[in-house]
């Protein structure tokens, strides 16, 4: 593979990474989980989902990791999804050895998926519904009276917040319209420089899209470095009921850790999770000038597409188009791709569609291409998944290992995708990464092994 | 979307032009009626029975009357279209009527949309959830099952911003890219224009339809907004932006669409150029004045000229107008200043995009319209040339500076754009 049109100095590279998922609380722990097949999935015990037709298993961040996030990133009035953003941004900035104040504007591109004032946790959703019911029983459809009540409730919370330092938000765990502004402001203060910001939404392609937006922004030369972050926490009665209506969730009734099984013939839907990840991106030249000699990956190119034929179903043609778009943008041929980090949601339709499109692009080489599917262990974190899984793509390049898909024990011959039950050690120069979503969203990205890959830490394995 | 290896680090200065616009406000469709209202001193904060529940005046866009496209596909998908999507598609179609959609697949995959949205959603749920919450108290079904059975199956998809962009792409026949940006970073819509310009300059797309929408705000959002800074309760003379007696933002609704493309693309396809965007930038900083200062400095430097007209955010908030005038004033001495918010209210998410279209219309008419509801300029805002009373002349060949703040009082984002009518 060549890179003739520009020197390595202009390459956009990843110099810092941070991760919190249901199976890990740091990048190194997450990588170890991917290699050993440690699952983060469990049966949802916080609410009664027994009468839903699907979706009984969830990817919930366990208490010990949650506490570590709260310790690292908790602040008065800060929502849980913002804590997740801050915790992973903090890990990524430390990893990249970035300290403010910076001497140039930076970029901040993020996606936060939370249900808003109805809360992020099941108990909050119940409390929300009780409040709404009480209000409605008293005030009915009287909009003026309802607004007066909401203003009074709000005023009381603001007054309480001033007294206690707690959040004035409608929910302890969800950012509302006002508090949504505090994340970029906090990052601007931490980095000591103005930020070009994009709080973006591209459904489940949003994370990969944010990386593409950051890389493009870096290539303009307007900013010195960019922080990309995405978090999700939304396992509530409402969200599960709606994904249930779409029949998008796993119907697996066996061991929880088997519920998400991309490319397996028994797959029956996805498992939705709470998770977060962050990256620090900059040009190779910028990193070198800061004295950062090793990097995680080069972002070589990406493809973006929208499909207008259906609101939820993926299409083979469009997956093929977006993958070919990423290859063309990176200036590589299908033969140059060593491994695929799939969207692999474990739904019937996504996995067969993605697999067929990959067959179209790679043809007979699909027999040789090792495919990994991180959602097998984490479940699906909407926009966060693209950033979470990109950390795995980067480590695949640096460490020369393709993680296994331990839940794909009965590979679907119709998908005919090469997955392994054990880590595959092999040199990897390029990874193709996919993310797709509702609303006709498609993104694909090519990551390349840098000439100066970041070595594994001498002693690996923080506890989580 | 596929481009050439997009590693062009040299600054691409190829001109970005606007080839079609769509605006929907309380004045109706198009920028003309808003300019007419500003020129005649007409206020659009109408007293309507539907607003009687609000303790604040509102300039509403008449959403129930906004049409949805005809045809089977549109009819089949309408259930997934929120009120926001209806307004977005209507504004997009106005811009498409001027600029044209994609004519074939090759063109379509190089065209996309960026949508500014965010504040005010959830109205679909406010119809349904309170009744279900009461039902849940006695219903034997577990809560998740109750919601599964009773919430209409289109509700979730309706609330997704990407769904709006997909409808816009359907209207345009675009296949290249669909992105939504929330107002917390969009600086009232200018952030989407800046993002679109980066897509174009990188060569990834040839054309981008930038769309912003501010639908009616829900009660819960209004309550939160008002608690941060009191919303204006009076829309009479003297309540407008920059006035000594201004007392809070005035509520508006609206939608805007801009077709933007590289000048050579517009030229090659023979499109009529409405205006050129010389520069556009939004920044978030520790405080909003630093953000706005950085954005204005950057666009003036990139445009390489001084503005002949300053179309300000001018929200009518005591603090925001003060911050804006103190920040931008040093760049705009002697430049006539106007604002649309005393006429059509603050259209939050899309206010900056609407103002871009209005500024172009002003250059086209060679008139800077007066600020609505401005009676006595506040001397604390400095020696600025606020247009009030009569309109002011401006050269057709002049340039307009548009400035914005983020949509909420606590937002620390600022944006700026420089526009000219180009050589038309």
Would you mind describing this structure in some detail?
The complex is a heterodimer of chains A (464) and B (424). With 464 residues, chain A is α/β, with parallel strands linked by helices. Chain A folds into two domains: 372 residues, Thiolase/Chalcone synthase (Peroxisomal Thiolase, Chain A, domain 1); 43 residues. In chain A, the strands form three sheets. A ten-stranded mixed β-sheet of chain A has the order 5-4-6-7-1-8-14-13-9-10. Chain A has a two-stranded antiparallel sheet with strand order 2-3. Chain A has a two-stranded antiparallel sheet with strand order 11-12. In chain A, helix 11 links the parallel strand 9 and strand 10. In chain A, helix 2 packs across helix 3 and helix 10 crosses helix 11. Chain A is globular. The N terminus of chain A is likely disordered. Chain B has a single domain, classed as Peroxisomal Thiolase, Chain A, domain 1, CATH 3.40.47. In chain B, strands 1, 2, 4, 5, 6, 8, 9, 10, 11, 13, 15 and 16 form a twelve-stranded mixed β-sheet that branches. Helices cover 36% and strands 20% of the residues of chain B. By secondary structure, chain B is of the alpha/beta class. The radius of gyration of chain B is 21 Å and the shape is globular. Chain B contains 16 helices and 16 strands. The chains are: A alpha/beta (464), B alpha/beta (424).
């Amino acid at each position: 593979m060549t890179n003739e049109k520009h020197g390595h100095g202009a390459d956009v590279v990843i110099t810092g990474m941070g991760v919190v998922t249901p199976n890990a609380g740091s990048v190194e722990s997450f990588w170890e989980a991917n290699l050993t097949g440690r699952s983060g999935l469990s049966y949802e015990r916080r609410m009664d989902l027994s009468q839903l037709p699907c979706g009984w298993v969830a990817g919930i961040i366990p208490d010990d990791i949650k506490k570590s996030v709260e310790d690292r990133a908790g602040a008065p009035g800060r929502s849980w999804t913002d804590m997740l953003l801050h915790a992973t941004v903090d890990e990524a900035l430390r990893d990249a050895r970035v300290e403010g104040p910076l001497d140039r504007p930076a970029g901040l591109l993020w996606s936060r998926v939370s249900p808003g004032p109805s809360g992020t946790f099941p108990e909050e959703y119940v409390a929300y519904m009780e409040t709404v019911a009480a209000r409605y029983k008293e005030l009915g459809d009287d909009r003026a009276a309802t607004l007066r009540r909401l203003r009074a409730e709000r005023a009381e919370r603001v007054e309480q917040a001033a007294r206690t330092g707690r959040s004035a938000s409608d929910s302890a765990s969800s950012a509302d319209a006002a508090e949504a502004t505090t994340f970029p402001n906090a990052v601007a203060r931490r980095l000591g420089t103005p930020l070009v910001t994009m709080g973006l939404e591209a459904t489940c392609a949003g994370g990969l899209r944010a990386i593409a937006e950051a890389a493009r922004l870096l290539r303009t030369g307007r900013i010195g470095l960019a922080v990309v972050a995405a978090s999700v926490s939304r396992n509530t009665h409402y969200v599960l009921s709606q994904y249930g209506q779409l029949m998008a969730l796993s119907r697996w009734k066996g061991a929880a850790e088997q519920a998400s099984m991309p490319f397996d013939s028994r797959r029956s839907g996805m498992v939705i999770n709470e998770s977060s990840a962050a990256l620090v991106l900059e040009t190779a030249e910028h990193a070198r000038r800061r004295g950062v000699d090793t990097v995680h990956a080069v972002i070589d190119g990406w493809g973006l597409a929208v499909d207008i034929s259906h609101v939820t179903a993926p299409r083979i043609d469009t997956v093929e188009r977006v993958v070919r778009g990423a290859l063309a943008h990176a200036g590589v041929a299908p033969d140059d791709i060593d491994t695929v980090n799939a969207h692999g949601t474990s739904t019937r339709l996504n996995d067969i569609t993605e697999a067929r499109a990959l067959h179209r692009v790679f043809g007979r080489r699909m027999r040789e291409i090792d495919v990994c599917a991180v959602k097998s262990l984490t479940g699906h974190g909407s926009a966060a998944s693209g950033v979470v899984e990109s950390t795995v793509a980067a480590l695949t390049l640096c460490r020369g290992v393709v993680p296994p898909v331990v839940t794909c024990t009965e590979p679907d011959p119709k998908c005919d995708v090469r997955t392994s039950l054990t880590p595959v050690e092999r040199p990897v120069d390029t990874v193709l990464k996919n993310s797709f979503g509702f609303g006709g969203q498609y993104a694909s990205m090519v990551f390349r092994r840098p000439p100066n890959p970041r070595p594994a830490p001498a002693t690996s394995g923080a506890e989580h | 979307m596929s481009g050439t290896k997009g590693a062009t680090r040299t600054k691409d200065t190829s001109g970005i032009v606007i080839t079609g616009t769509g605006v929907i406000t309380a004045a109706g469709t198009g920028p003309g009626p808003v300019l007419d209202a500003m020129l005649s001193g007409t206020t659009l904060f109408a007293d309507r029975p539907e607003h009687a529940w609000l303790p604040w005046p509102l300039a509403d866009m008449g959403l129930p009357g906004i049409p949805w496209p005809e045809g089977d596909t549109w009819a089949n998908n309408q259930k997934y279209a929120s009120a926001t999507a209806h307004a977005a598609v209507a504004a997009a179609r106005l811009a498409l009527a001027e600029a044209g959609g994609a004519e074939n697949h090759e063109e379509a995959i190089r065209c996309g949309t960026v949508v500014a949205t965010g504040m005010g959603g959830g109205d679909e749920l406010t119809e349904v959830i309170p009744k279900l919450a009461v039902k849940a108290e006695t219903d034997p079904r577990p809560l998740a099952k109750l919601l599964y059975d009773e919430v209409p199956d289109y509700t979730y998809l309706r609330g997704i911003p990407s769904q709006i962009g997909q409808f816009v792409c359907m209207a345009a026949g675009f296949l290249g890219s669909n992105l939504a940006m929330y107002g917390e970073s969009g600086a009232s819509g200018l952030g989407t224009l800046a993002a679109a310009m980066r897509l174009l300059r990188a060569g990834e797309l040839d054309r981008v339809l930038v769309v912003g929408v501010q639908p009616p705000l829900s009660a819960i959002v209004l309550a939160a907004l008002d608690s941060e800074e009191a919303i204006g309760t009076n829309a009479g003379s003297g309540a407008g932006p920059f006035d000594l007696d201004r007392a809070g933002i005035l509520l508006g609704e609206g939608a805007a669409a801009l077709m933007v493309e590289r000048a050579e693309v517009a030229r090659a396809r023979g499109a009529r150029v409405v205006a050129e965007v010389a520069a556009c930038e939004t920044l978030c900083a520790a405080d909003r004045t630093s953000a706005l200062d950085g954005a204005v400095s950057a666009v003036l430097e990139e445009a390489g000229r001084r503005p002949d007209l300053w179309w300000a955010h001018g929200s009518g908030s005591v603090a925001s107008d003060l911050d804006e005038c103190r920040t931008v004033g040093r760049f705009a001495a002697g430049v006539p200043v106007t604002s649309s918010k005393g006429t059509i209210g603050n259209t939050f998410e899309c206010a900056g995009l609407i103002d871009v279209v209005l500024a172009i219309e002003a250059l086209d008419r060679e008139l800077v319209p007066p600020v609505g509801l401005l009676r006595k300029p506040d001397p604390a805002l400095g020696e600025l040339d606020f247009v009030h009373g009569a309109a002011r002349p401006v050269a057709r060949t002049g340039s307009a500076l548009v400035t914005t703040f983020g949509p909420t009082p606590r937002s620390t984002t600022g944006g700026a754009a420089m526009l000219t009518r180009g050589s038309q």
